[in-house]
Specification:
Strand content: under 5%
Order of helices and strands: HHHH
Shape: elongated
Helix content: 25-40%
Structural class: mainly alpha
Largest sheet: none
Number of helices: 4
Length: 108
């Protein structure tokens, strides 16, 4: 009986240590393996701001809904400089995040 218990314990230990996770694939100089990102030819603050619209009315998005029509940023005395603030935020972002912002279809 003692040998059977010892044999079962050894067998269980061997099974536990045999199930080690495989090593991840090596990272190449071009970045992560198997990840593709869409690219935009010119990713600048100007191209990002071209996709930004101001909504004058409340909008609740949902599946299959038509995107709202927006307008340009409001201007005038006492109105924040939205375009300038978005440009500064875009310029402060990492190139990878800038690319993600440029890949957006619209920003409201």
């Amino acid at each position: 009986m003692r040998y059977a218990l010892l044999l079962c314990a050894a067998f269980t230990a061997a099974l536990c240590f045999a199930c080690v996770a495989a090593a991840p694939p090596p990272v190449t100089s071009g970045g992560r393996v198997g990840i593709r990102t869409a690219t935009v030819p010119q990713c600048t603050a100007t191209s990002f701001l071209a996709n930004v619209s101001w909504l004058n009315n409340q909008f609740s998005p949902g599946p299959g809904m038509t995107p709202p029509t927006g307008s340009s940023f409001p201007t005038g005395n006492g109105v924040p400089n939205y375009a300038g603030d978005l440009t500064m935020a875009f310029n402060a972002a990492s190139p990878a995040f800038q690319q993600q912002l440029c890949n957006l279809d619209a920003v409201y």
